[in-house]
């Protein structure tokens, strides 16, 4: 995981991906992320807690897309929790966990999908718990692990129910349940330890630092260009260094 960002080599028989429902790419994701970060830096204390969590959800999705590449396949369109985690969200990590955890456990348990699925979610939860500890050095609260275990439990229920796709009404209801469940449990278990340990404050602080450095660099380059235009360099003339 320390090797991120990376991209998986596409399979030979992989078909061309259909156009996205939302026109999201680097050209749109970067300015949207910057706008959200700017709003959070300026108005975080005035934003309602639930609205703040919604913005964090959007920002997390956009940052993963920007840093890891096209890592997801529109998870906001999922009609099942299993589809969201297994086919749409963070496909690079999904492929790693499928080969390193899911298939070995599936083999050991003689084809029990529920056991293999729960093992994947448990490992993913422990990985997130470890990353949070590495960043904050705070004692683990196990909320991250519980978040992924809850997701795995819901996926197991979906496996047992094994319902068909159905018509558009059923798919719409499935979409509401899926998005509501994933977002709701993230509000309950995923984001609280991040906020409690100041991860969001640290991210916003780094963003403000980068913006300030960029602003100073821009002013310095503008001043340098102005000096070059007004006073061309000659043998006795030197240009003032850029201050950052």
Fold and architecture overview:
- Helices cover 69% and strands 0% of the residues.
- By secondary structure, it is mainly α.
- The longest helix has 32 residues, at 199-230.
- The protein is elongated, with a radius of gyration of 23 Å.
- Residues 1-6 have low confidence and may be disordered.
SSE inventory with pairings:
Layout: H1 26-43, H2 49-68, H3 81-88, H4 91-108, H5 113-136, H6 143-161, H7 168-196, H8 199-230
Low-pLDDT stretches are 1-6
Number of strands: 0
Overall radius of gyration? 23 Å
Percent range of helical residues: 55-70%
Q: Could you spell the SSE succession in H and E letters?
A: HHHHHHHH
Tally of individual helices: 8
Report, as a whole number of angstroms, the end-to-end distance: 33 Å
Mean pLDDT: 84
For the biggest sheet, the summary is: none
Shape: elongated
Give the helix/strand class.
mainly alpha
Q: Tell me what portion of residues adopts beta-strand conformation.
A: under 5%
What key phrases describe this protein's structure?
single chain, 244 residues, mainly alpha, 69% helix
What does this entry show, briefly?
With 244 residues, this protein is mostly helical. It has helices at residues 26-43, 49-68, 81-88, 91-108, 113-136, 143-161, 168-196, 199-230.
């Amino acid at each position: 995981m320390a090797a991120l960002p990376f991209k998986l080599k596409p399979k030979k028989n992989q078909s061309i991906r259909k156009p996205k429902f939302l026109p999201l790419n680097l050209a749109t994701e970067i300015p949207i992320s910057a706008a959200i970060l700017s709003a959070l830096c300026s108005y975080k204390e005035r934003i309602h807690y639930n609205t703040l969590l919604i913005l964090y959800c959007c920002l997390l999705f956009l940052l993963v897309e920007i840093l890891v590449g096209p890592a997801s396949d529109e998870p906001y369109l999922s009609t099942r929790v299993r589809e969201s985690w297994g086919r749409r969200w963070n496909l690079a990590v999904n492929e790693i966990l499928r080969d390193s955890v899911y298939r070995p456990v599936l083999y050991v348990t003689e084809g029990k999908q529920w056991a293999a699925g729960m093992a994947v979610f448990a490992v993913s939860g422990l990985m997130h718990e470890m990353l949070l500890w590495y960043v904050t050095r705070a004692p683990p609260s196990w909320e991250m692990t519980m978040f992924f275990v809850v997701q795995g439990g819901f996926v197991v229920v979906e496996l047992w129910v094994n319902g068909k796709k159905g018509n558009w009404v059923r798919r719409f209801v499935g979409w509401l349940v899926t998005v509501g469940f994933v977002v709701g449990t993230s509000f309950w278990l995923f984001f609280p330890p991040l906020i409690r340990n100041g991860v969001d404050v640290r991210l916003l602080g780094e963003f403000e630092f980068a913006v300030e450095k960029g602003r100073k660099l821009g002013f310095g380059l503008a001043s340098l260009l102005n000096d070059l235009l007004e006073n061309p360099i000659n043998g006795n003339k030197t240009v003032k260094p850029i201050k950052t």
